[in-house]
Structure formats: structure tokens, C-alpha cells
Amino acid sequence: MKFVRYLGSLAFVFGLFTVVFVGVPWYTVNAQNPANPWWLQGAVFLLMSGILLVLLSVALDQKNKSEPTELTDGVVQTDLIISNTDQIAGYKVVDTLGVVKGHTIYAIWIGNDLSALVRLILGGELTEYTDMMGKARSIASNRMIKDADALQADAIINVRYMTTSVVGSAAELLAYGTAVKLEKKE
Questions:
Q1: Ranges in the chain, pLDDT < 50
Q2: Which of 1.25.40.10, 3.30.110.70, 1.20.1290.10, 3.40.50.300 would CATH assign to domain 81-184?
């Protein structure tokens, strides 16, 4: 089903850009002879068939989905302890190394936006945006971990995530926390 949706999205994008960036200027130049050439008719056909394919694939996908699938975290393997609390059980903080952060602005392409728009009409989880935010969270987390590794930290405490919408289907995600050195409690 993803392949059909991808194919429909690709047809939509190709048709849209051909109509807007080639067809409209051509029609403007040749306004006295309004007969549409074959390539402009084909671009409009791609545009409409792309929308139809995406609509059908999302509708079938919605019908076949019983439970949402969970995203895998995708965070790099590390020896660091990562926590959203200010203490780690069994350890005491012996040195605060400073704030560490990871940041990304992540976007999906217009074809996925089209699929999400259809889901807004039909209802259901906007999986395109769920995937986008999961990938953005992994990228930001990995960058935060690399920042802490550079400080030779044992842990990152008080981890927080902040997100904002930048433009359309792009989201900014910031992961931050405090890098610390730990010592085992006796």
C-alpha cells in the first residue's frame, strides 16, 4: 500500500509542478490560442490520478489498520544513563558538566502532506507526522548524546523535549538536559 501511495504522491507532485511551472506560463504566452497541448493535458491527468491514488491507498490503509504500530526509538546505543529526573537511583551526582542539547528541523515532502490531508478528512492517526516526529526525536536525542559524550559525561539528567512548528509540515525539535558525572552510592 505504501508503494501505491508513494506512486500517487509522485504523480501528484510531478503533475502539479508541470501544470504550475510549465502549463501556466505556456497558457499565458499562448492565450489567443487556448487549445491545451497533450503534455499539459497529461500533467493535469497525473495531478488528478495522483490525488486519486493517494485517496484510495489511505482509505484502504485506514480500513486494514486495527491498531497503530509503535515507532522504534532509533536512539544510538550508549553507556550514558539518560533520565528526565534530577537523580539516578543508586548514584550521586559529583560534578555538573553543563547543559547538552540536540536540535533538528525536520520536514516531510509534499506527497506525505497530501496523505495527511486525506487522513484529516477520513479520520485516524496522521502516521506521516508521527513518523516525522519520531525521526526528529531520534536525531535530536542522538545529537544530545554526542554532546554529552564530548564532555565525557556519565549521565544526562532532567532531559526535556521541546517542539515548535516552523512552517507547514516542518517541525523543530530540541532535546536538552544536564550532563553530569556520577559516583556509586555506598
A1: 66-72
A2: 3.30.110.70
